[in-house]
Structures are given as structure tokens and as C-alpha cells.
Amino acid sequence: MRTLIQFLFPKPLNVNRNSIILLLFRLSFGGLIMTHGISKCIHFDKLVNHFPTPIGLSPTLSLLLVIFAELFCAFGFGIGLLYRLCLIPMIFSFSVIVFIVTNHAPFAEKELPLVYLCALVWLFFAGPGKLSFDYLIGEKLRKNRQQKWETEKK
């Protein structure tokens, strides 16, 4: 009974558990999005001639930008390196898919891109967590700034 109560009414998550959850989300969503980018790289020659150009760019440039978002930005997002900067092209790409490319399509066709878009937007606001390269770099920069401030103070 106690286990059931703890499951239904959990204690607030601590910072470490939140960071682990964010890490798992980053790795899973980043990895899933990277599979799309890898597929586009492999089939580049087949896709480049008829890739959609919903915002008026050439098919080659559109495909390259989507590959950049789905492969390189997804990798940085997954490991938490330049996390929010990596999320911007991914959010933009999925926004174009949801609101322009599949605008008049049935909901079932745009459901998966919409799930990705919602998750990426939520993760943008959640931040990368402590288990990320951004956190490590930020800590190093804060430590250096603190040391510099202390030496200037003396």
C-alpha cells in the first residue's frame, strides 16, 4: 500500500533526478531525430531533386539545412553542448513541417512532427540539466569569473 501511495503521490524530484531525466530525454529525442538526418544523408542524391521548398529556398539548400538541424544540431542537443542554440534550428525545422508542409494534411500525418515539436519546445525551456557539457562549461566560466572578481576586489 505504501508503495502505491508513493507511486501515485511522489515527493518532489530532486535536482539530480531531474538532470538524469533531462539527460534521458535529450539522448532519446536527439537519437531519434538523428536517425532522420542520417537517412537524409544516405539518400541525399535521391532526395535533392524533389525535396520540398516550403520557404522558397532551393531544394539543395533546404535539404542541407534540414540535415544540419536533424543531424548536427540533434547531436549537440543530445550531449548538451550548445543546447539551446542547437534547439533553435530543430524547432524551426519541425515548425515548418507542422505549419507549412503538412498544413492541409490529416492530423495523423502531422502528429509525429507535432510530438517532436512540442517536446523540443518544452526541453528548450527546461534547459539541459546538470548532466550536460553546457553545465560543465558554465560552471568553469562562473568559477573563473568569481576568481577574477575576487582578485580585482583585493
Name the features.
7 helices, flat, mainly alpha, 154 residues
Q: What is the alpha-carbon Rg in Å?
A: 20 Å
Helix tally equals 7
Q: Please state roughly what percent of the residues sit in beta strands, choosing from under 5%, 5-15%, 15-25%, 25-35%, 35-45% or over 45%.
A: under 5%
Cα-to-Cα separation, first versus last residue = 60 Å
Low-confidence stretches: none
Q: Structural class of the secondary elements?
A: mainly alpha
How can the largest sheet be summarized? none
Domains (count): 1
Q: Give, in order, the helices and strands.
A: HHHHHHH
Shape: flat
Q: What do the pLDDT scores average to?
A: 88
| Total count of strands | 0
Oligomer: single chain
Please bin the fraction of helical residues.
over 70%
Can you walk through the features of this model?
This protein has 154 residues and is mainly α. The protein has one domain (19-153). It has seven helices and no strands. It has helices at residues 2-8, 15-42, 44-47, 59-79, 83-101, 107-126, 133-153. Helix 2 crosses helix 6 (107-126) and helix 4 packs across helix 5. The radius of gyration is 20 Å and the shape is flat. It starts with a helix and ends with a helix.
